[in-house]
Amino acid sequence: MGDLQQIRAEVNNAFKLSGFTIRRDASTFVAEQLIALSYQERQKIIDKLTAHLLHQCLSKPVLEKQNLEVAYKECLSLGLEETETVLNVIDAFNLPKLYYDNERKKFLKDLGAKSILFPEPKSKAQMLIDRYTMIWQRTVRNKLFAKEALPSIESENRFQLRKIEVLLSSSSRINEVIVLGLLTQLTEGKFYLEDPTGSVLLDMSQTRYHSGLFTENSFVLAEGHYDDKVLYVMGLVLPPSENRATSLPYFGSLNTFGGKSKTLLKNSQNLLKIEQDNEDGMIVFLSDVWFDNLKVINKLKTLFTGYNEFPPIAIVFMGEFLSCPYGYEHSMQLKAALTNLADVLYPFTKLRESSKFIFVPGRGDPIAANILPRPQIPNSITKEIREKLGDSVIFTTNPCRIQYCTQEIVILRQDLVTKMCRNSIHFPDTGDIPDHLTKTLLSQCTLSPLSLAIQPVYWKHADALSLYPMPDLVVVADHFQPYTRAYQNCQVVNPGSFPRTEYSFKVYIPSSKTVEDSQIPNEDT
After folding, report:
1. Are residues 128 and 134 in contact, defined by beta-carbon separation less than 8 angstroms?
2. How many Cα atoms within 13 Å fall on the side-chain side of residue 238?
3. Contacts of 323 (CB under 8 A, 6+ apart)
4. What is the mean predicted confidence (pLDDT) over 211-226?
């Protein structure tokens, strides 16, 4: 037993140095696993274990035996770890719930979060507070506001971010105010700025609007002066967005994206190698794919024929899946159309065996309310196509997420341009609408910065719409003309409506992070 005692001492010392206290039965478990190994091999595994546990962001520093059993199993799996998935489609109802810890200045996993569709009313306020906290912590460390970036006292006052309670407690005029808050109408026709500390009436008669789409329920930076309980807004600006590299230190190696892995697969060297080696790998995005339309089906046959020899990683079909509403027969019509699609796809053996077919529903697809996130199409409708095509078919939610190797892709089917422009308090005088939309979504950290009356959201599942930290690709399938925009190392893409754009679609190549425009040639000419 001398050896075991000595190894236990080694284990205890190593964990102490990393700031952990290890229970006796836990250190005995580790020592028993290592007893047959040489000193160097033991040290390697102990280092691996401590590093793995440090990344777990455990709530308390005392290590139980079960912590070590799980960590040991995860550290020893060879090659691709058990949780390192090459392709993973993550539905909106299975995402990790994170919260910002003000004391530690980092995001932690909320282990007590419950997945409820209709929670208590305070969850509505909590949803907005969470979004405010996310944007606040990102804004205060931006170089415009971070104190270390401001050498003189005057400039410190100039760019000091204030809470609304500071304004409300002042009886005199305050010049050069900058406040971060939620733009809202608390009374009809009057705009207010609201944060967790209070709300203030806005005078926007002389406001200069910077780039972006400013909608009710979006967070803005209001710049101006405060006098007699009114904030006179001279300039309205979107909060500065933050690229992924700047955000990551505040998350550690937490899996922020979803999926089975406890740690973030973005850092996986194994997956990075697979991604870079697969130079020709591509993901195809088509929106508004009407499976009941003969011309669309014929164009899809051409697409499948073209890709059969070189199958893509995945083909993502986005709704609506029927060309018009069929009333009470809608579900039956979709079931028949999907079964027909299975028959069309079946002869393309290579494609069927190598590619995934992912279906993201639109607003008119059965059978769900107009509330985001929207559940997948029910199994009763998709049963036949799943039986014919097996595991290659995936029906998912709207929005959904796709993790391919180290890349993170967020997909939403929503006519967002129309909704955002229609509900903006000021339409941009200059610039390009896709540019404004891209900047707005990434600044607001959400796919739906609209009032809940315009676009209802399940309060407890608002995280499914989150764009923070920034993904690699955001696909917003819209009736608007197709576009591709890049902003702070994130690409925002609209494939456009497949039938309405002469059968055009978008292709994403993960190895080079490029988006290509594609179109099925017209055979009539």
Report:
1. no
2. 21
3. 290, 292, 293, 296, 499
4. 96
Nearest to 239 by CA among 193, 206, 294, 291: 193
Asked if residue 399 has a cis previous peptide bond (ω within 30° of 0), the answer is yes
Tally of CA atoms within 13 A in the half-sphere of 312 that contains its CB: 21
Long-range residue pairs from 40-49, CB within 8 A, at least 24 positions apart, any chain: 42/7, 42/10, 43/10, 43/14, 45/75, 45/76, 46/10, 46/11, 46/14, 47/14, 48/75, 49/75
Strand ranges inside 48-197, DSSP E: 62-63, 87-91, 98-101, 106-109, 161-162, 174-187, 190-195
Write phi, then psi, for 370 (nearest 5 degrees).
Answer: -80, 65
The label of the residue with tokens 């209070």 reads 198
How far is residue 54's CA from residue 251's CA, in Å, rounded to a whole number? 13
Please give the pLDDT value at position 46: 86
517, 504 contact by CB (below 8 A) = yes
In angstroms, the CA 518 to CA 222 distance is: 42
Residue 10 confidence class, pLDDT cut points 50, 70, 90: confident
Q: pLDDT by residue (tens digit) across 433-492?
A: 999 999 999 999 999 999 999 999 999 999 999 999 999 999 999 999 999 999 999 999
pTM above 0.70, yes or no: yes
- Average pLDDT in the 269-293 region? 95
Residues 161 and 179 sit within 8 Å (Cβ to Cβ): yes
Dihedral, CA atoms, 289, 295, 299, 302, nearest 10 degrees? 140
Helix/strand/coil for 270: helix
> Which residue carries 């740690």 as its tokens?
263
Q: How many helices (H) and strands (E) does the chain have?
A: 15, 23
